[in-house]
Amino acid sequence: MRRLPRETWVLVADGASARLFRNLGGENGAVRLHQEEALALDPAEGVMPSVMPADMPAREAEEASFARQLALHLNQAALDGRYAHLVLAADPQTLGQIRPLLHGEARSRVLAELPKNYTNVPREHIERALAPEF
């Protein structure tokens, strides 16, 4: 059975919000998450894709922009050496938007991807959901 390494970052996201956790679990393999950051969609801060379909609804464009913001955040943190391991837990659409935008340094640190939306669930529920994975 794999164990989620201590200090692993866990990003829980959807198209409009995200929470970034750090695993403080001990050597016994327990998953114990501590929330480090809460991020929310801010269209004014958006990084729009260079090519977008003309008929893309505004909400989808904002969600794509938020996914890019998250990927940029993860990329910079990986390049700065702020984390060694990463778990991505996001709804399938957001996960699919983030994945191709990850820099090789960030991508190489991904231990698991969970295609499920945990953004509005308590931390304890996320810990239980991660436990069978590791």
Draw up the topology in text:
Layout: E1 9-13, E2 17-23, E3 33-40, H1 58-79, E4 86-90, H2 92-98, H3 104-107, E5 110-114, H4 123-130
Kindly estimate the percentage of residues that lie in beta strands according to DSSP. 15-25%
Distance between the termini: 6 Å
- The strand order across the widest sheet is 3-2-1-4-5
What coarse outline follows from CA principal-axis ratios? Answer: globular
Structure explained in plain terms:
This protein has a domain at 1-44 and 93-134. 31% of the residues lie in helices and 22% in strands. It has four helices and five strands, in the order βββαβααβα. It has helices at 58-79, 92-98, 104-107, 123-130; strands at 9-13, 17-23, 33-40, 86-90, 110-114. Strands 3-2-1-4-5 form a five-stranded mixed β-sheet. β1 (9-13) and β2 form a beta hairpin. α1 packs across α2 (92-98). The mean pLDDT is 87.
Give the tags.
five-stranded mixed beta sheet, 4 helices, 22% strand, alpha/beta, 31% helix, 134 residues
Question: Short description, anyone?
Answer:
It contains 4 helices and 5 strands; from the N terminus they run E-E-E-H-E-H-H-E-H. By secondary structure, the chain is α/β, with parallel strands linked by helices.
